């Protein structure tokens, strides 16, 4: 009997929501930190936007929480290979913060920095248009400290290392300035759909 190779196995089910080279982590949410998890009380947390803006501003916890809320429901993708489907984050859209500080026309890039020293660089365009949040809720619960609580940056359309935990501020620049992982060989932009894992990908 002739068996044509390739017709004997079960068809491989490929999830269309899974970017190339990623796997579905299911209910797991791995913790990935280059830093020891800090315990930051909401009263000690603040978020600043400065650099190339008309009016640099700092929000304390209560002030940030009083802004109009915005939620993300969708997927996240880590460069180490896991993706997580159907997660829900609550917080405030970065657009709301940018409306208050008014980025200058010369601003093209951003560096996000944490209360612990971690940094990540991003094109400003990836932080606007309803695609980036300051998030303090996960599945309706306060964001856990190991996942960046009290609040983290959330940029779900890029690899998750851009989503700076324990977010302290964003500085707008007229040039790209590599952050922590980007200085260590990771991609300036990190689009999972184009598999921009490492510098030069
Ligand atoms: N401040 C800070 N933010 C960070 C990191 C970090 O080490 N410090 N790690 C990044 C990396 S590599 C990833 S994949 C995600 C992991 O988020 P999680 O631990 O909530 O899964 O956070 C990102 N944000
Ligand atoms: Mo990561």
Automatic annotation (TrEMBL):
Gene3D superfamilies: Oxidoreductase, molybdopterin-binding domain. Residues 1-20 are annotated as: Disordered. Residues 37-181 form the Oxidoreductase molybdopterin-binding domain. It comes from the Bacteria. InterPro entries: OxRdtase_Mopterin-bd_dom, OxRdtase_Mopterin-bd_sf. SUPFAM superfamilies: Oxidoreductase molybdopterin-binding domain. This is Sulfite oxidase.
């Amino acid at each position: 009997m002739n068996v044509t190779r390739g017709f004997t196995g079960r068809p491989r089910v490929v999830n269309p929501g899974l970017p190339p080279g990623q796997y579905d982590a299911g209910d797991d949410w791995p913790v990935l930190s280059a830093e020891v998890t800090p315990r930051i009380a909401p009263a000690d947390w603040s978020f600043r936007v400065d650099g190339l803006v008309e009016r640099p501003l700092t929000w304390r916890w209560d002030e940030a929480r009083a802004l109009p809320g915005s939620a993300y429901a969708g997927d996240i993708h880590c460069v180490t290979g896991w993706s997580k489907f159907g997660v829900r984050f609550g917080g405030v859209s970065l657009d709301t913060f940018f409306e208050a500080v008014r980025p200058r026309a010369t601003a093209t890039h951003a560096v996000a920095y944490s209360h612990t020293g971690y940094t990540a660089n991003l094109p400003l365009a990836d932080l606007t248009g309803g695609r980036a949040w300051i998030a303090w809720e996960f599945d309706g619960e306060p964001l856990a400290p190991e996942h960046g609580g009290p609040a983290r940056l959330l940029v779900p359309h890029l690899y998750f290392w851009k989503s700076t935990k324990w977010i302290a501020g964003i500085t707008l620049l007229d040039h790209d300035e590599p952050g922590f992982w980007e200085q260590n060989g990771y991609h300036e932009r990190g689009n999972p759909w184009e598999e921009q894992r490492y510098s030069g990908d």
